[in-house]
Design goal:
The protein is α+β, with helices and mostly antiparallel strands and about 140 residues long. Helices cover about 25% and strands about 15% of the residues.
Protein backbone atom coordinates (compact mmCIF):
# COMPACT_ATOMS: atom_id res chain seq x y z
CA UNK A 1 0.00 0.00 0.00
CA UNK A 2 1.30 3.43 -0.98
CA UNK A 3 0.66 6.27 1.45
CA UNK A 4 0.37 9.70 -0.15
CA UNK A 5 1.16 12.95 1.62
CA UNK A 6 -1.81 14.73 3.22
CA UNK A 7 -3.52 17.37 1.06
CA UNK A 8 -5.03 20.65 2.19
CA UNK A 9 -8.46 22.10 1.34
CA UNK A 10 -7.11 23.29 -2.01
CA UNK A 11 -5.60 19.91 -2.88
CA UNK A 12 -1.98 20.92 -2.24
CA UNK A 13 0.36 18.34 -0.72
CA UNK A 14 1.34 19.19 2.85
CA UNK A 15 4.95 18.38 3.76
CA UNK A 16 5.18 16.39 7.00
CA UNK A 17 7.51 19.01 8.50
CA UNK A 18 4.71 21.61 8.34
CA UNK A 19 4.20 23.21 11.76
CA UNK A 20 1.39 25.68 10.99
CA UNK A 21 -1.92 25.28 9.18
CA UNK A 22 -4.76 27.77 8.77
CA UNK A 23 -8.53 27.53 8.98
CA UNK A 24 -10.65 29.18 6.33
CA UNK A 25 -10.75 32.54 8.09
CA UNK A 26 -6.98 32.64 8.60
CA UNK A 27 -6.64 31.49 12.22
CA UNK A 28 -3.47 29.46 12.67
CA UNK A 29 -3.18 25.98 14.17
CA UNK A 30 0.19 25.00 15.63
CA UNK A 31 0.97 21.44 14.45
CA UNK A 32 3.08 19.29 16.74
CA UNK A 33 2.84 15.93 14.95
CA UNK A 34 1.21 13.98 12.14
CA UNK A 35 -0.60 10.65 12.46
CA UNK A 36 -1.62 8.26 9.72
CA UNK A 37 -4.30 5.88 10.94
CA UNK A 38 -4.66 2.36 9.66
CA UNK A 39 -7.52 0.02 10.33
CA UNK A 40 -9.08 -3.07 8.84
CA UNK A 41 -12.56 -1.69 9.52
CA UNK A 42 -13.13 0.37 6.37
CA UNK A 43 -16.41 1.71 7.76
CA UNK A 44 -14.42 3.62 10.38
CA UNK A 45 -14.14 7.28 9.32
CA UNK A 46 -10.58 7.46 10.66
CA UNK A 47 -9.27 4.51 8.61
CA UNK A 48 -6.32 5.15 6.30
CA UNK A 49 -6.31 8.90 6.87
CA UNK A 50 -3.87 11.59 7.89
CA UNK A 51 -4.53 13.74 10.94
CA UNK A 52 -2.59 16.81 12.04
CA UNK A 53 -2.31 17.01 15.82
CA UNK A 54 -2.31 20.53 17.26
CA UNK A 55 -0.54 21.83 20.33
CA UNK A 56 -3.97 21.80 22.03
CA UNK A 57 -4.48 18.10 21.26
CA UNK A 58 -7.04 18.48 18.46
CA UNK A 59 -6.88 16.11 15.49
CA UNK A 60 -7.46 18.06 12.27
CA UNK A 61 -8.46 16.67 8.91
CA UNK A 62 -5.90 18.18 6.50
CA UNK A 63 -8.60 18.51 3.82
CA UNK A 64 -10.35 21.12 5.99
CA UNK A 65 -7.38 23.42 6.57
CA UNK A 66 -4.94 25.39 4.42
CA UNK A 67 -1.19 25.22 3.96
CA UNK A 68 -1.04 28.99 3.55
CA UNK A 69 -3.36 31.73 4.74
CA UNK A 70 -6.51 31.34 2.63
CA UNK A 71 -7.93 34.10 0.51
CA UNK A 72 -9.37 36.95 2.49
CA UNK A 73 -12.86 36.36 3.81
CA UNK A 74 -15.59 38.58 2.41
CA UNK A 75 -19.12 39.50 3.36
CA UNK A 76 -20.25 37.67 0.23
CA UNK A 77 -18.42 34.49 1.30
CA UNK A 78 -20.01 34.71 4.75
CA UNK A 79 -23.45 35.17 3.16
CA UNK A 80 -22.80 32.17 0.87
CA UNK A 81 -21.79 29.97 3.82
CA UNK A 82 -24.79 31.10 5.88
CA UNK A 83 -27.12 30.52 2.92
CA UNK A 84 -25.76 27.01 2.42
CA UNK A 85 -26.40 26.26 6.10
CA UNK A 86 -29.88 27.79 6.00
CA UNK A 87 -30.84 25.83 2.87
CA UNK A 88 -29.73 22.47 4.30
CA UNK A 89 -32.51 20.09 5.26
CA UNK A 90 -30.38 18.51 7.99
CA UNK A 91 -26.97 19.09 9.54
CA UNK A 92 -27.11 22.85 9.02
CA UNK A 93 -23.83 23.46 10.86
CA UNK A 94 -22.11 20.87 8.63
CA UNK A 95 -23.42 22.65 5.54
CA UNK A 96 -22.20 26.00 6.89
CA UNK A 97 -18.71 24.50 7.27
CA UNK A 98 -18.87 23.23 3.68
CA UNK A 99 -19.56 19.57 4.44
CA UNK A 100 -22.00 17.50 2.40
CA UNK A 101 -22.81 15.19 5.30
CA UNK A 102 -22.04 15.03 8.97
CA UNK A 103 -18.53 13.62 9.34
CA UNK A 104 -17.69 14.58 12.89
CA UNK A 105 -14.23 13.06 13.16
CA UNK A 106 -12.94 15.23 10.32
CA UNK A 107 -14.78 18.47 11.09
CA UNK A 108 -13.40 21.57 12.74
CA UNK A 109 -16.61 21.75 14.78
CA UNK A 110 -15.79 18.47 16.57
CA UNK A 111 -14.21 20.07 19.64
CA UNK A 112 -16.33 18.53 22.37
CA UNK A 113 -19.03 21.19 21.97
CA UNK A 114 -22.18 21.20 19.92
CA UNK A 115 -21.63 21.91 16.23
CA UNK A 116 -24.07 24.81 16.42
CA UNK A 117 -22.09 26.48 19.22
CA UNK A 118 -18.85 26.20 17.20
CA UNK A 119 -20.61 27.53 14.08
CA UNK A 120 -22.04 30.51 15.97
CA UNK A 121 -18.62 31.38 17.38
CA UNK A 122 -17.08 31.02 13.92
CA UNK A 123 -19.72 33.35 12.44
CA UNK A 124 -19.18 35.94 15.18
CA UNK A 125 -15.40 35.74 14.70
CA UNK A 126 -15.75 36.23 10.95
CA UNK A 127 -18.05 39.26 11.45
CA UNK A 128 -15.56 40.87 13.84
CA UNK A 129 -12.73 40.31 11.35
CA UNK A 130 -14.77 41.66 8.45
CA UNK A 131 -15.60 44.78 10.50
CA UNK A 132 -11.87 45.28 11.05
CA UNK A 133 -11.91 44.74 14.80
CA UNK A 134 -8.76 42.58 14.65
CA UNK A 135 -6.74 44.96 12.47
CA UNK A 136 -3.82 46.51 14.29
Amino acid sequence: MSIELPKDAEGREIPLDTVALFNRVGNVYSIVRWIFTTDFDLSDGWSNKWRAITDRGFALDPALVYLTTPKTDTWEKLEEDLGRGADALNYEACAYFGKNACSCSSCIADKGETCERVAMRDIADRIRKLRGEYDA
